[in-house]
Amino acid sequence: MGILNVTPDSFSDGGTHDDPRAAIRAGQQMRAAGADIIDIGGESTRPGATLVPPDEEMRRVLPVIAALAAQGAVISVDTRNAATMIAALDEGAGIINDVSALRHDPVAASVVAARGCPVVLMHSRGTPETMNCHAHYADLVRDVTDELAERSRAAMEAGIASSAIALDPGFGFAKVGTQNFELLRGLRRCAALGFPLLVGLSRKRFLGAAMGQPHEPAARDPASLAAGLFALGEGAAILRVHDVAGTVQAIRVREHLLI
User: Fold this and answer.
1) Of these residues, 80, 125, 205, 240, which one is catalytic?
2) What is the number of H-type helices and E-type strands within the chain?
């Protein structure tokens, strides 16, 4: 899954793709490099980020979704807002990727159920503005797994098919510092819930801190590859990444080694 942030303020690539033409070109390049899914978002959800109104979010993402979907790309829309979900699906998106696990918008679960589309439910606590204040756990891996299980149950009770659900442990969302490594080491417990796991480690701050380059997101790509390959070995099904070409190469070599 290639990350395409159509935002001025995302932590790694904010402002790079906020022009629709630049975003469309970037999406085309990701497809050519081997991305199976392009994840398009119009609201930064980095720690401390403020809410973006749905109308502004839609203004940013809809032209890009429409153009890439018309070219045959599989599109997921990274949004917490039901109105954006509806509009994005109408423009050709096929997957909803919700960092709030359908908690933010009370209508979102019914939208996903009615449309019958796949949905990614990500673990977090609070909002992007407050989530780091909630990074307190009795048992991190157990608590994250239990809370993901609760969100999957709520989704199914809302009418979403179990086969349409994927889970994301939410690295960097209400997890700080070495908590992220603890969660990565315990990934098999999340995978044991029985849903496909999407893992988003790419260029996260905790990787930069571990390698002594906390302030240069693009310099974290080698660390992102190492963490991503480890995640695949622990049960991840989808890697959400900035560096599509490098990740595809690494995965292909891994596949040859596992034959």
Assistant:
1) 240
2) 10, 8
Closest CA to 91 of 115, 109, 64, 60: 64
Q: Treating both helix axes as pointing N-terminal to C-terminal, what angle do 108-115 and 82-90 enclose, rounded to 10 degrees?
A: 20
Active site residue 252: no
- Determine the length of the chain: 259
Tokens read off for 232: 């695949």
- Tell me, yes or no, if 175 is annotated catalytic: no
Exactly one of 60, 80, 204, 220 is catalytic; name it: 204
Please give the average pLDDT of every successive group of 10 residues along the chain, which has 259 residues.
84 63 96 98 81 93 98 98 98 98 97 98 93 96 98 98 98 96 98 98 94 86 97 98 97 95
DSSP symbol at 58: H
| pTM listed for this prediction | 0.93
Query: What CATH number should be reported for the domain holding residue 21?
Result: 3.20.20.20
Range of the structural domain that residue 102 is part of:
2-257
Q: Torsions phi, psi of 60, nearest 5?
A: -75, -45
Specify the number of domains making up the chain. 1
Q: At 4, give phi and psi (nearest 5°).
A: -130, 95
